[in-house]
Design brief:
Ribosomal Protein S5, domain 2; five-stranded antiparallel sheet; Alpha-Beta Plaits; globular; about 300 residues; 10 helices; kinase; 2 domains; Ribosomal_Su5_D2-typ_SF; GHMP_kinase_C_sf; kinase activity
Amino acid sequence: MKGPLFYSKILLFGEYGIIKDSKGLSIPYNFYNGALKKSDHPNETALESNKSLKKYVDYLAAINPDLVIFDLETLKADVNDGMYFDSSIPQGYGVGSSGALVAAIYDQYAKNKITVLENLTREKLLELKSIFSEMESFFHGKSSGLDPLNSYLSIPILINSKDNIEATGIPAQQNGKGAVFLIDSGIVGETAPMVSIFMENMKQEGFRNMLKDKFIKHTDACVEDFLSGNIKSLFKNTKQLSKVVLSHFKPMIPKQFHELWKKGIETNEYYLKLCGSGGGGYILGFTEDIEKAKQSLSNYKLEVVYNF
């Protein structure tokens, strides 16, 4: 048995902001993927995955049947038969490892599922998002449902607000010098503790005002610039966003990257931002000159995900 492949994702813009209704833009990242599998000779990783799937099945069995119904009998039988999620998506890296698993389970075992081939109206997208939110909450405590949605549909998703999302097209990649890239921080990040720091900060009026007046303002502008292909303005807004994150989201940035972050803003050679909830995993970078950025960040391996 081998199920279809589900890909990782990158939230280009919107981390934390989408909790408070900023815009967001999430794109599939085909470099990593995962699929449900069975094997006669499972290795250690497969056995671990199977063990956590057993717990997950119990969780899914308790989900409100008004929201989604699974073929639990087949799912249980497959898991007892050794099924596991074979994935190259790094966990705790902000690229949607649990999202791909959720998408794979829904695809294989949900009854009356909404399929990719349907006319995906806003209502259907929101219904999928709320199903996925419930399914993914098992892994993070609270999930927006966006990662699995992106993985399941494998198309860019534009978040206008919590109740307004749409499938979107993004400008075709160019062969220019500009690029979006990932840096591996070498640390596994955990979503739940980062989100609870954010929620704690949200109790302060100053932080809430900063979020609205600066963070969300620049995030929304970045999304609009990116989609309209306004590269000059995009880099201006990404620089502002990078500054705001360095000032107000320090706990989410691994310590050894604070200076590197600042250097990018001061030299304009690159601008860094969080990829997902931060605390480790990948860091997202934007540069107008990828060769310059590679020299400046020569101690790190850069993975280019998009070219301007």
